Prior knowledge:
Elements: H1 32-41, E1 49-55, E2 59-65, E3 72-79, H2 83-97, E4 99-106, H3 116-129, E5 136-140, H4 144-154, H5 159-183
Parallel strand pairs: 1-4, 4-5
Antiparallel strand pairs: 1-2, 2-3
Helix pairs in contact: 4-5
Amino acid sequence: MAKTFHDFVFCANTANSPYMQDSSEPTNPSSPSNHQNSSSLISLPGKGRLLGLDLGTKTIGLAISDGLRLTATPLFTIKRKKFTLDANQIIEVIDQNQVAGIVLGLPLNMDGSEGPRAQSTRAFARNLKAQVLIPIAFWDERLSTSAVTRTLIEADMSRAKRAELVDKLAASFILQGALDHLGT
């Protein structure tokens, strides 16, 4: 029996994910990754919905938290065109949902260093910050897309359906990791 999209909303809990335990979500609280994540999240306001972004070269996955910041829910995927057009779509979501802050997945290398993709993500954040009045925090997103893809494959989802869902589910996975961290 094929699983529906709704069966995957809760796969974003990184604390229970066998794919994220050792590499993306270090258990050592003094590790550089946990410190980076914690210090970045400090910039977020204490209340209000958060928007999660999974920035790719061709797409941007979006997810949103509930008002209590317990659950991340996938929204949709933007097919990237020009920064201004992409930013306008993000701003529309911020305005429609009264978003208080943004959690942007930061694609670190497996050793925790920043490569070209992380630098590109930081540049995107700087440009977006010039357009919005809410804080933007980074969250280590190593292997988030891989974990979501593996879950969808295990659910026997077709390649076409996976391609349609993976970016917004990865955004939800990233945001849920940040929410779980904020809730502890």
